[in-house]
Amino acid sequence: SPAFRRKRCLSSRQHSNDGHGRMFNIFLTSTSGASEQEEGEQVQYDGWSPPEDRTSNAAEGGASQNDEALAAADDGHTGETIDKELMMKNFIDSMMAGIVLIKHGKQGDPHRRRIFCDENVETISWKKENGSQAKNKDAYPITGIKEIRWACEPDPDGEMSGEALAGTKVLRDSCRWEDAPLSFSIIWEERTLDLQCHTRLECKYLIHCFRQLIEDKKRRHPDIRRRSISENSAGVIEPNAGVSALAKAAKAALED
Question: Which residues pair with 15 in a beta bridge?
């Protein structure tokens, strides 16, 4: 991947020795698609179909250092939604429980963090793997997400500088190039959340679901679907008041 460095980085991938001291990735070769999981994955793939394998290695793990063509052959397709309701239910259930992924940052080594959404599916935050509070205690709004970018997809900032850049600056500085196919970024205006998955399958699934979540959020206004203006006190927001109350309050305001 363009501009990614060869460097050591926390990785959950398995390796095998070829007998001559060289290490190679153990690629999953199962044709069972989304039913195949590796240790550490905490998501259920029901309702989602993985993309058709476009490589000879069925690469669910990382790319080997001698197989740059592997990533090049992957067009970034994230699969197909088979049952949206089931897929998103499983995804949100996993997010509420917390999905452990490798988080890359501007400083320090990559580390495992438990990524959460709140019970109203409005914000994303993270804690340490054991559930204790991380240094960053902030929660970031899902409606403020600008993009979900796979680490092998172009970075628009490269166009401004005239360079061929992929991913984000954080991933380019922190993630090994061979782990780029396992990684993606959640991008807000003020920051990025840069994550590395256990397998390519998990990475594609999470990218697919995050993008679907953002699309769903854009299609409906949260105040219309989840809240409405109170009939008792103008301007007060009440949960579960219903769309009819919102319409009634708006009509009353026009008549005043």
Answer: 25
Per DSSP, the three-state class of 143 is helix
Residue 31 confidence (pLDDT)? 24
Kindly give the pairing relationship between strand 111-117 and strand 123-128.
Answer: antiparallel
What phi and psi, each to the nearest 5 degrees, are found at residue 165?
-110, 150
AA identity, residue 165: L
pTM: 0.68
Instruction: Identify the bridge partners of residue 112 per DSSP, sorted by sequence position.
Output: 102
Tokens, residue 204: 């594609």
Closest CA to 50 of 68, 74, 72, 70: 74
pLDDT category at 209 given cuts 50, 70, 90 is: very high
- 212 in Cβ contact with 87 (< 8 Å): yes
CA distances from 94 to 52, 88, 89, 110, 186 (A): 25, 10, 8, 22, 17
Radius of gyration for the alpha carbons in the chain, expressed in angstroms and rounded = 21
C-beta of residue 207 within 8 angstroms of C-beta of residue 184: yes
Q: Residue 55 and residue 71: Cα distance in Å, rounded?
A: 9
